Amino acid sequence: MSEITAARRYTRGAVALHWITAVLVALAYLAIEIRGPKGDPGRPLWTGIHEWAGTLVLVAALVRVAWRARHEPPADLNESVLLSILARLAHLALYIFILAQPLLGMLTLNLADRPVTLIGLDWSFRIAGPNPEWRPLIKEAHELIGNLFYFVIGLHALAALWHHYVKRDETLRRML
After folding, report:
1. Are 55 and 98 within 8 A, CB to CB?
2. How far apart are CA 100 and CA 25, in angstroms?
3. Of 19, 57, 104, 121, which is most buried by a Cβ count within 10 Å?
4. CA neighbor of 106 nearest in space, from 138, 137, 133
5. Pairing verdict, β 116-117 and 124-125
6. The pTM of the whole model exceeds 0.85
7. Which candidate, 57, 66, 73, places its Cα nearest to that of 15?
8. 26: closest CA among 127, 133, 156?
9. Contact, 95 vs 65, CB < 8 A?
10. CA-to-CA distance for 80 and 72, rounded, in angstroms?
11. Which of 85, 97, 88, 80 is nearest to 152 (CA)?
């Protein structure tokens, strides 16, 4: 396979932000899946890691949005209008997820009268006050969206692999 020209690749900043976000999302999912039941001695550590990763996902997402606003992505490689539309919708869904999901997690904590705290830092913050009536709804939304995005993230990865191994185009390589 030939070298990809700079005009056809994502910028180094976009690539770095993509993979930083991917690792943080994976860490947030890993931590919430292995945290154990209530009362488990490891649960506070894994819950803290989940909250740290989620907060950093939001920070990375905000930086990504700012980066994207200032740096035009490379041209779409899809010949098909349908594939281009699906790719744009998938990217929009991923951006909504990496912005909304951490905010819903923070709201879940705040509505239970808990600030967002980051282990190891003497720092905490709130984006909302306590509200026991809204907390179950927001918590359910956070969990539902988290479960839905296993599917969307999986589709994103499968699409990249399909482009690489079936279409044999540069889609995956230009994000490496």
Report:
1. no
2. 13
3. 57
4. 138
5. antiparallel
6. yes
7. 73
8. 156
9. yes
10. 21
11. 97
Place of tokens 């939304």: 141
Residue 119: phi and psi, rounded to 5, are -50, 135
How far is the C-alpha of 44 from the C-alpha of 64, rounded, in Å? 30
CA 5 – CA 126 distance, rounded (Å):
45
Residue 116 is which amino acid? V
Per-residue model confidence as pLDDT tens digits over 133-175: 999 999 999 999 999 999 999 999 999 999 999 999 888 888 8
Beta strands in 29-171 (DSSP E): 116-117, 124-125
On whether the CB atoms of residues 103 and 125 are closer than 8 A, the answer is no
CATH number (1.20.950, 1.10.20, 1.10.357, 1.10.260) of 6-175 reads 1.20.950
CA atoms of 176 and 174, how far apart (whole Å): 6
CA 152 to chain centre: 11
